[in-house]
Write a structure and sequence with these properties.
CATH architecture: Orthogonal Bundle
Structural class: mainly alpha
Strand content: under 5%
Helix content: over 70%
Number of helices: 12
Shape: globular
Oligomer: single chain
Largest sheet: none
Amino acid sequence: MIEALEFEFMRNALLAGLFASLICGIIGTFIVVNRLVFLTGGIAHATYGGIGIALFFGIPYILGTLGFALIAAMIMTAVLLKAKSRADTFIGVIWAVGMATGIILLDLTSGYNVNIMSYLFGSILAVSTSDIWWMAGLSIITITAAIFFYRDLLAISYDDEFARLRGVPVNLIYFLFICLIAVSIVMIVRVVGLILVIALFTIPPYIAEKYSNSLAMMMVMATLLAVLFNLSGLWLAYTYNLTSGATIILVAATGFFISMAIDFIFLNKTAS
């Protein structure tokens, strides 16, 4: 693996994995603690509509996908805050409409030669230097937001009604962090793809939650686990010529099942 770092695309892949791990560790913690996994999946799949728009109108991928993802995220968040009991249905509708829009627009786009599979399953080895700069900027924004709003995040993550009584701007913070989720998805799609991105957001924080006694520790541990999964998956993909995104997620899934097995063994010993 060391000799592979002589190539620029491998160095870019390594940096992309590290930045993606940082983003997923922090944003993923917010997703898992607030039970927003389905909403995140809705945004991720609706983003396919943005890919279709970008290719159909010939605009840059970032502009089309990011714009569509942010609009979908704001609509879903508004419904979640106003009608929580019906939010899953509405999110499912936007999820389906986004995917369908993307497919139809791709059908109507004559002569496109973009490898759509790279958007669905990721292509970390194709990450460009400009993608790295975008991810670096998003990492800085994510860290800054997490530090600045940490106390508010802690309050709304465990008791949003009490947070409202204390004057915490719950709706504003929800909108802000769900918009960060949308932006993160657009960036990380390049690493693991639309279909697999939800796993990278949820598996490391889920494992970290069981071994953390604070929200900050959970973010740090989730980030470190994501780094481990990304680097291990990248190494296996390079060594055995496998699809990088799918390999990273299978490594993360292995970590998930190992943590479940440890919990099962520990509970049985405690019970006996």
